[in-house]
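Issue 218. Parser rejects a valid record. Input:
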Amino acid sequence: MIELRGREEIETTVRAGVLEHGTAELLRETGVGERMDRIGAVHHGVELRFGGRGHRIDLTGLTGRSIVVYGQQEVVKDLNAARLDAGGQILFETAATGLRDLETDEPKVRFRGGAKLDPEAGEIRFRDDAEEEELVCDYVVGADGFFGPSRSFVPEGVRKEHVRAYPFGWFGILVKGPPATEELIYCLHERGFALVSTRSPTIQRLYFQCDPNDSVENWPDEKIWEEMHARLDTDEWTLTEGEIFQKSIVQMRSFVCEPMRHGRLFLAGDAAHIVPPTGAKGMNLAVADVRVLARALAEAYASGATDALDSYSETCLRRVWKASRFSWWMTSMLHRFHDEDDFRYRMQLAELDYVSSSRAAATSLAENYVGLPMESAASADEPAPQDALR
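Output the parser choked on:
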């Protein structure tokens, strides 16, 4: 494994962490779910808030499943530990510098250690004594994120990219303090969207819709709390404030690359697809990709059969497009489109009213939110999940 950043950075940078039911089950099956079950928070519902009132969607009551709130950095910490304990190798602060021979039986990865990303320059810098090396592989998995190099090695004549940019962003803050609510709150207000989430018993994550070209310097703490209270407070509930220790603006876009395979290169996670965070699907889609790929690789090594590898892209993209649809729908329903007239806003309120009052509509939201079922369980002659992911 070649990882651009250092271990401490990826294990301590606080990130989103809504785990679908299937994701949580897979972590348990593969032996890396102990900490998740011990310190993660199981949520059985979410709240839609509009018109100054909250409406709870009973995820478990409607689907029999739930979600687990457990930060992505914690999942990464568990996976790193499991791989290193098993004798696997992770090359931290190492950058892939090129791929070649992807359509042969021996694809190759060029890489160089001593790497540091300069965020201001947007460049990777290397130690002077770091030498470039080459790794000869059976298969290459490009799980290097949207800005990583892997996707660029799928030829332009083969690669098709679908992009949707949204005319708003999320202003996010991390706050020291206890949870303000037991379950996530998704709010549509005349001023725009707001979200109350959690990261741990002592750290909370809050967002509100903003201009994507805005700057965090324009938002002192007092102004942030004023905006959050205006959008979220009701007659029965007031947002709990705390010490803000991080501010950021998140860009909103949908992106899908087709296909997710070229020769013996397989794209996974953000390298192949991006969804707006409204539907909480980003990490879950990456896990679903890896699940499909792990089983396909296990099958290829065990029997030489490559049917599952050959259908990897098609299998994953079915789920990717469904998750993209759900994320687009949630985003479209819960954000103000200020460049349009009030007709759209009234339609959004009507949609929220329907979703929160119709069992069928609420079930559709709940099914997608807790995660559509993983593919059917392995047959008796297929490798068990824990073997496939080793």
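Fixed in the parser; the record now loads. The mean pLDDT is 93.
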